[in-house]
Amino acid sequence: MQYLGILQNMIKKWIHQFRTWGASLARHRHAELFLFLVSFAESSFFPLPPDVILVPMVLANRKKWFRLALITTVASVMGAVLGYVIGMTLFDVVAEPLIQFYHLEASVQAVEVYFEKGSFLAMLLAAFTPIPFKIFTIAGGLFRVAFLPFVIASVIGRGARFFLEAYLVNKAGHHVQPHKHPLWYGILGLLVVAAGVAYILLR
How many domains are contained in the chain? Predict the structure, then answer.
């Protein structure tokens, strides 16, 4: 029981810091622009998942959950199109140095196999899960997958992920108080962190 109490106190402190950071970010006049830029960049070259920004911003302003999810989705899909263009037209200049920088050579080869089995399903799963999305967007252009299915899968996958995430955080923030249910909120926060961890592990 003593260890459980220590764990709860640690989670309470972590949640407080997480919410405080999100609240300060949400109050910034350029908060939505920052969310847009991170979401856009993550789909083509940036390592930070937008979830770690979206979630605290929704917690800080639950009434804007739909708007924030929409911003994240639109920016992410636009970034996916940029990744496609990079892979198709700028592979030697931009894409290859990025792949080497992140040590993703083997991952790109694996993505080619996934595309051969079904590019639409591969893009859909990559867009929804914590799998590094930029690998698939750049590889989509490199291997010349059909552009329209590429975009549709990105919209569905990214939209499902971010809208579901924002909706659940909105509902959790409305019905659950962190001081009464610290473990529940801790699990929610860990799920967000898991997106970043999974990104690193799956590179």
Answer: 1
Instruction: Give the pTM.
Output: 0.73
Q: Residue 173 class from Cβ within 10 Å (0-12 exposed, 13-18 middle, 19+ buried)?
A: buried
Taken in order 79, 84, 85, 89, the sign of the CA dihedral is positive
Other Cβ atoms closer than 10 A to 152: 15
Q: How far apart are CA 34 and CA 40, in angstroms?
A: 10
What distances in angstroms separate CA 40 from CA 73, 90, 183, one per listed residue? Answer: 9, 18, 32
Residue 26: other Cβ atoms inside 10 A: 19
State residue 50 phi and psi, 5-degree precision. -65, -20
Report residue 183's pLDDT band, with 50, 70 and 90 as the boundaries. very low
CA distance 105 to 124: 21
List the domain range (segments joined by +) for residue 43: 2-201
pLDDT tops 90 at residue 176: no
